[in-house]
């Protein structure tokens, strides 16, 4: 599956202002600097779609993009060490939580994780929170082009071992690279398959 057309629709801080139609939404989130904007641009075949920056925390709004007029790709603010005030951070957190918990159109949340580093408590706790709130999500390992395959396999094994300390099974996961396009087809095929099932139902 290839995306043919992506158009920016709206940015906002209030879920009440999100698009009012019933099209399915697939949202992307991760710690600041995990490579979210680059991956979104890779999926969309558009290097300028999501704003990339060397400074973490640039996405500060809920950004909706309509894909092939059938579903929304949603770019959510990152969590973690963005250099913003405590007050701003709390606003981001509430905005993200409101969207994730209250947006009926949200079908799946893609949680981005840097494949190069050990499991981070902030990511593990965030996924625990998603599980507790029964939010459907998938794990997306980023920047796999920076690792040799044996190191990547070792890192994923370490991560999954850590996850299994509190999870009965590993959620659906993808290994990706915005540089090489690895994992792009798998993610888009996964979305297409879910959309097909939604149409049947």
TrEMBL record:
GO terms for molecular function: GTP binding; metal ion binding. Its cofactor is Mg(2+). Residues 22-197 form the EngB-type G domain. Keywords: Cell cycle, Cell division, GTP-binding, Magnesium, Metal-binding, Nucleotide-binding, Septation. One of its GO terms (biological process) is division septum assembly. It comes from the Bacteria. InterPro entries: G_ENGB_dom, GTP-bd, GTP-bd_ribosome_bio_YsxC, P-loop_NTPase. Pfam families: MMR_HSR1 (PF01926). The keyword Coiled coil does not apply. The keyword Cell division applies. SUPFAM superfamilies: P-loop containing nucleoside triphosphate hydrolases (SSF52540). Belongs to the TRAFAC class TrmE-Era-EngA-EngB-Septin-like GTPase superfamily. EngB GTPase family. Necessary for normal cell division and for the maintenance of normal septation. PANTHER family: ENGB-TYPE G DOMAIN-CONTAINING PROTEIN, MSS1/TRME-RELATED GTP-BINDING PROTEIN. This is Probable GTP-binding protein EngB. It comes from Croceimicrobium hydrocarbonivorans.
């Amino acid at each position: 599956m290839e995306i043919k057309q992506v158009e920016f629709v709206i940015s906002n801080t209030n879920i009440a202002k999100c698009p009012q139609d019933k099209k399915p939404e697939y949202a992307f989130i991760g710690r600041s600097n995990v490579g979210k904007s680059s991956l979104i641009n890779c999926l969309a075949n558009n290097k300028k779609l999501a704003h990339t920056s060397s400074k973490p925390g640039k996405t500060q709004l809920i950004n909706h993009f309509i894909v092939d007029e059938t579903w929304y790709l949603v770019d959510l603010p990152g969590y973690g060490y963005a250099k913003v005030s405590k007050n701003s951070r709390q606003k981001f957190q509430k905005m993200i939580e409101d969207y994730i918990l209250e947006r009926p159109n949200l079908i799946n949340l893609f949680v981005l994780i840097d494949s190069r580093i050990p499991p981070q408590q902030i990511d593990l706790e965030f996924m625990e929170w998603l599980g507790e709130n029964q939010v459907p999500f998938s794990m997306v390992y980023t920047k796999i082009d920076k690792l040799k395959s044996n190191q990547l396999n070792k890192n994923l094994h370490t991560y999954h071992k850590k996850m299994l300390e509190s999870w009965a099974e590993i959620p659906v996961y993808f290994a990706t690279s915005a540089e090489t396009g690895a994992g792009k087809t798998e993610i888009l095929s996964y979305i297409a398959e879910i959309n097909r099932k939604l149409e049947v139902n």
